[in-house]
Structure formats: C-alpha cells, structure tokens
Amino acid sequence: MTWGERVARIDRISVDALDERQLEEVRQSVRQERDAEANKALSVAIMGQTGVGKSSLLNVLFGTRLPVGDLKPATCEPRVISIPGNSGHTLTFWDMPGIGESAGADLAYRSMYLDRLSESDVVIWAVHADSGSAAEETRRLNRILRDADPELRRQVVSKLTFVLTKADTLTPPPWIFDMRGPHGSFVPSPALAARLERRAAHVEETVVAPWCDLLRAGTYNTGEFTVSDDRLSFDRHAVRYRGHFTEQVRERYSAAHPEHAAVFSRLRDNHRVLPCSALFRFNLARLMVSVVNKLGPTAVFRFQRVLDDAAELAGVPVSTMREYGNFVVWDGVRGVRAFDLARFPL
Q1: Can you give the C-alpha Rg of the chain in angstroms?
Q2: Measuring CA to CA, how many Å separate 143 from each of 125, 180, 293?
Q3: Are 165 and 52 a contacting pair, CB within 8 Å?
Q4: pLDDT digits (tens, 9 = 90+) for 152-189
Q5: Are residues 158 and 119 in contact, defined by beta-carbon separation less than 8 angstroms?
Q6: Is residue 303 within 8 Å of 291, Cβ to Cβ?
Q7: What 3-state DSSP class applies to 264?
Q8: What is the spatial distance between Cα 164 and Cα 161, in angstroms, rounded to a whole number?
Q9: Rounded to 5 degrees, what are φ and ψ at 307?
Q10: Residue of 23, 24, 33, 35 lying closest to 1 (CA atoms)
Q11: Which helix (H) or strand (E) holds 337?
C-alpha cells in the first residue's frame, strides 16, 4: 500500500484506534515515501538566446562554474550538470545551446531542444530584460514545437518558466543597495520596478498568452482547498487550472475565496514572467520558490539544497557592490577627477 493510500485510510480511522505497532508502520511508510522522492533526480533545463546569461544564472543559483562568454556562444551543445543534494540525491541541470543564431540552426537543433524540454521537470526560458525582440521568442518556440503532437505541446508550454535576465542592465532609473552591515541586497527604485513590471507584462502578453489554449497551471494542495469550476479542479495532492492564469484571474479568485489566496498566488507563479539578475542576485530566491511551487510538494525534498540556501541568494557583500559601482566622476570645469565611487565612503 502506498503512502497516499495509507493517508487516505488514516483519514477515516482515528489515530486512537491504532496501536503503537500500527502507528510505527505508518511512520515508516511515510519515511520511505519521503526518502524515495528525495532520491529522485530533479531535471531542470535552461533555454534562451546566446548571450542572455543562462550559464551565469545557473552558476549563481546552484554554485556551478560554467564558462560564460559575451562575444560568442559559450555553450555549443547540451551540457549536463549534476549536483549532489544535502541528502545524497542528485539535481540535474541542462545548460542548452543558445537559440537564435539563425532559423536554420534552430531547425537543426529542434529535435534536441524538444527532447530536453519534454524530459525535464521544469524549463527556465531566459529572455534578456533589455531586449525588444519578445515576439522573436514566440517564433522560436513555435519552430521547436511545430511538429510536436498536441499533448506534447501542452506538456512543454505548461512547464516553461519565463524569466527576464540581466535586469541590472535596465538603468536609469537607478538601483538601490540596501546595506545591512557588511552585506546588503539590490532592489529596484520605484520607477525602475514599474519599468520592470511593464517589461514583464509585455513578455507575458507576447510570449505566454498566445499559448493560452494549451496552458495549464498547477500547484500542491495542502488538503484544505475545495474550490472547483469549469477551469479549476483539485484532488488530495494538487490544484490545477486549465488556461492562462493571469493576474486578473488571480485577483478574481482571491476576491471570491480569500482563504485560498496563497494557492491562487502559487498558480499565478506558473505563468508569471519574473525579472532577475545573476549579477545583483535580484529575485533569485523568488525564482526558486516559484519553481518549487510549480513542481509540487515532493519537489521540496528534491530541491532542498536550493531552498536551504534561498536566504543567501540575495546577499551581496558591500565590497562586491563597490566594484559594481566603480564610477569616476570627472569635473569638466576644472579638468580633474572629483572622486572614485569605489573608494568613496558611504
């Protein structure tokens, strides 16, 4: 009998009706199920144009040391990275070749991309935050999925998580460094946050929304969720939505069922485009929590290494911040250097 079957049975039997041997049997079953899930390899693929910062994102998220390159592709073929988790299981990441070198190259690699997208638990699709070619991302995804059967297309587009990389390049307006002792974190100024939000909304409308008929959103159910309609369904373990779970959809459901606002927020994360920065470590913890929410409760065991380090993802040493802000102010009237911000005291 599986753990789920035992839980279903226990729901109908009072714990007081079980003797110590039976309780220990249930505890052992739960431990075995948990360990089995923890030891499953979790596969994550990262896609995007050449130079969008895929390898840099993997490096800062998972402590890898992948080569990065700004002038030519650093990844020319699929590169697998296996990382041991804190309980001995394996996390597997696929750093994919950059797409967009040419339509011919994308077509040649189509089968490779499609195989990896379909086999991975989750796919992070990176879009440069300062790029104006969001429509081109849809064309590339269309080329990859062109010959796939409808069910495979549905599976692939539903597991995609789109992120805006290199958000640090969007200046001005300025970034704010919130310094707390020797460390701090970068946050966008209100004007920049609004710009990032507009950019994310544009990418969602251009790249995600066209797939609305195939999209599905899902998250884990802790057992209290009981809402269903023609698009929303649930069982003991999961809550699912058929279609594009937009911000407007989240607001409507949350207003009608405020007690389940957290569930609707997790469903929204399925289709939310999230700005991030590997350099500034901006929104990385939020990205990882979003991935876990999308995968379900058992993924927490497999993704524990990332979640344990989530609090550290946003931290940037002040000494490192000063390197990012190494601006020389030149006094054009007197013809002298005013000061070097990297050494200028705060």
Answers
A1: 23
A2: 15, 47, 29
A3: yes
A4: 888 888 888 899 999 998 878 888 888 877 888 888 88
A5: no
A6: yes
A7: helix
A8: 10
A9: -65, -35
A10: 33
A11: strand 336-340
